[in-house]
Amino acid sequence: MTLPTGWEGIEQNFLGLDEPWCHPDQAGVYVLPAPYEHTSSYVLGSDRGPSAIIEASQQVELYDEMLRNEPYREWGGVATIRPLDLGGKVDKQAVDAIDAFVAPHVGTGRFAVTLTGEHTGALGAIRAHARHYPDLCVVQIDAHGDLRQAYQGNPYSHASVMARVVDDGLPLVQVGIRSISPEEIDRIKSTDRIATFFAAELLDPSGPYDGKASQWVPDVVKACRGPVYLTFDCDGLDASLVPALGTPEPGGLGWYDTLNLITALANGPGILGMDISEIAPIEGFVAPQFCIARLIYRILGRIKAGRRVH
Could you list the residue range(s) of the whole structural domain that residue 220 is in? Predict the structure, then answer.
């Protein structure tokens, strides 16, 4: 088999897969890199995140010791498209370009994973999925509310991306939030379309869930109003796992709590698409992007297992 034009071979693809496992005609997962950064307000470099994740993924062990299989084989392979060149587009034009980049791969029987830079890029991928799945519920794993109407005068800021999701009429479930403004609190209180689970409530042993995922994960799943689109800002994880972030915050989700949540979503409402954002690589320090590459692979395994449950 020869790869068609525009698809990456073993040296540039996610997981470093050889043919036929990286061929788009066979693969059940498409990885879609859409590096974008324009409004980052603290540490720059998130546009280098997708390439760093793909490079690190080539060191990920392909056997999942918890599922006891190799998820890439269960999917029939993972194909990686050549990164989107935004050509200087920003704000709405960039979001529209990412939408157009992702849309042809939604509803084709493949599972699309969009790798972007700042969280704004996720909006294009979300809109591409929402048009095909009108009952979609967006689950946001994140440290930040991202519900400002605009930030620094820009409604397409990374701090406003979830406000645009809600404006689009999509239900939103937020998990791990621990940095938020009064404006965003007012927005959450003003609508029943947003369910917010603050990190302190979930993870503090003295909180309402005793810090136990077995107690809070069912409530998150119950809040989902339909099949899930997962938008995963890497700062949703604790900064001890992923310190290479544009806007780091302490006190985030741990590795196994995250996998428990993903498993419950996959086995419950199901996950129809996902994106990863906000890795800002630190030169010479590969652990953060390796963590995320491994997490993506583990998530894919749980999504595939969840489809067998359904």
Answer: 14-309
